[in-house]
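Re: [ENG-882] Designed sequences occasionally contain unexpected residues at chain ends

Forwarding the minimal case from QA. Structure tokens:
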């Protein structure tokens, strides 16, 4: 019962986190200041766009890359653990990945979460996001799945 309640709380908080606030103007909801103080912003390099005009893309599709690259952890196979989780990361202006965070992991399988982070950390470069025609840093969420063949 506690797991179900925890799942619902995580799902609701993930949903509100991914949707952003609805009370601010459209431009304000697109930006996250990683320094948390506008006076410290000297360049647009500190801004991370949540919803840029053109989203970042991964050549060939990120789900294809994950399916081909993820290696099922041995203990997870033994324990027949399956599930899906979510990662969040920053796609830099050069297309590289930084600040990978497990937003929701596979229950009882830290090795699965570590494998997903490992795979994203060696990910080839993306085509970065654009806003107002300029290349920008952006935040991206991706689902990873561990399922028996």
């Amino acid at each position: 019962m506690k797991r179900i309640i925890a799942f619902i709380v995580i799902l609701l908080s993930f949903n509100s986190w991914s949707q952003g606030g609805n009370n601010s103007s459209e431009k304000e909801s697109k930006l996250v200041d990683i320094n948390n103080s506008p006076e410290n912003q000297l360049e647009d390099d500190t801004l991370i766009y949540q919803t840029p005009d053109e989203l970042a893309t991964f050549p060939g599709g990120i789900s294809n890359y994950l399916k081909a690259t993820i290696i099922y952890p041995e203990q997870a196979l033994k324990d027949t653990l399956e599930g899906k989780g979510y990662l969040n990361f920053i796609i830099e202006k050069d297309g590289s990945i930084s600040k990978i965070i497990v937003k929701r992991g596979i229950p009882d399988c830290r090795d699965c979460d570590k494998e997903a982070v490992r795979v994203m950390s060696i990910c080839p470069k993306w085509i970065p996001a654009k806003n107002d025609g300029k290349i920008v840093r952006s935040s991206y969420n991706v689902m990873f799945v561990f399922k028996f063949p």
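QA comment: On inspection the terminal residues look reasonable. Residues 1-42 have pLDDT under 50 and may be disordered. Proposing we downgrade this to a documentation issue.
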